[in-house]
Amino acid sequence: MTGIEGPFWRAIAVFRVASVVYAVALLIRAGGYAHPVAGWLVIGVMALWTVVTVFAYSVEELRGRPLLAADMLVTVGCLLATPFVQGPYQEGSLPVTGTWMGGAVLAWGVHGGRRLGALAALIVSLADLWLRGLGEMDVETLPINGTVLLFLAGVLVGHTARLAKKAEERMQQAIEMEAAGRERERLARGIHDSVLQVLALVQRRGQEIGGEAAELGRLAGEQEAALRELIRLRPVTPAAGTADLRALLQRYGSTTVTVSVPATPLTLPVAVAWEMAAAVGAALDNVTRHCGAQAPAWVFAESDDGTVTVTVRDEGPGIPPGRLEQAAADGRLGVAQSIRGRIADLGGTVTVVSAPGRGTEVEMSVPAARNADVP
């Protein structure tokens, strides 16, 4: 049994089994009633049907109107067999089914909500009252306790089950929305690292050159803005195994970028290592974009107390106060997503230290022992 309904059906199964045991105890205590053979026959039918329903209701495909109707017919049939087992009705006595007749009411309530639970309670109650001679009773002697309990059980259990179903549906929707948001952010980071930067470069160079190139730059700018709005990402299966972050970082070494790594491996899950390296790449792209293609930059990597930290430093003009917040508000995802978003998804932190005219230092830290279960 899966889903939120599973515990309800298991509880009903336990109730049915316990009710059969209770009915057997009543039969034994009454000495078999007036007709012991008929009594044991009815108990046998109840036990057999209990086994059938325990299995049938555990299979989602079998739950439906045919099973509910059969459940009610068997329940009412066993209930109406009481006179043939016990003889003439005696005030205060329980039918041969005992509490077992409530199982069908609970099943209807769980499957169809409080209205169907109330309808099932009405059917079973009318059969019980007819069995007790409803036409011969007056209002004062009308046995309504069992009827009230059946209605309460059917309505309350049905209402609770319906609320649980709605809560499960809303939770699933929230999970799907969150997953979709995370996937969009991942694609946004990847696009920013490649396509968006190229479009931005074309736009900037077109404006600088002028003429027809300016129109080309304008079109590139429009496509860049449109692409930011259309970001979507398909699910990606995470890579398995581990990787040495040092090898990924050393690829960035050049005449302008100095990479310093420790002598010992910086072992991380593959997905974490690649995302960490991509964040470093985004930081270096920002250095090139804002400080110039020949601006020097330094990458430092270290491991300490279960944390791997990579720092990217430059000696450029620095970041004015509020610039990062404004860039994020304008949809420019260089730091907000390509760096901070990536590291946050890995369970890490990003610290940006900068001041106008004093360069920028971006420090990225992730747990070294993180499991390889990131998206």
UniProtKB/TrEMBL annotation:
Domain DUF5931: 3-169
CDD domains: HATPase_UhpB-NarQ-NarX-like
Alphabetically ordered keywords of this record: Kinase, Membrane, Transferase, Transmembrane, Transmembrane helix, Two-component regulatory system
The UniProt record lists the keyword Transmembrane helix: yes
Pfam families in the record: DUF5931, HATPase_c
Domain of life: Bacteria
The keyword Transmembrane belongs to this UniProt entry's keyword annotation: yes
SUPFAM superfamilies referenced in this protein's UniProt entry, alphabetically: ATPase domain of HSP90 chaperone/DNA topoisomerase II/histidine kinase (SSF55874)
Residue intervals passing through the bilayer: 12-31, 37-59, 66-86, 141-161
Residue span, Histidine kinase/HSP90-like ATPase domain: 279-369
Cited NCBIfam families: HK_morpho_MacS
Protein name: DUF5931 domain-containing protein
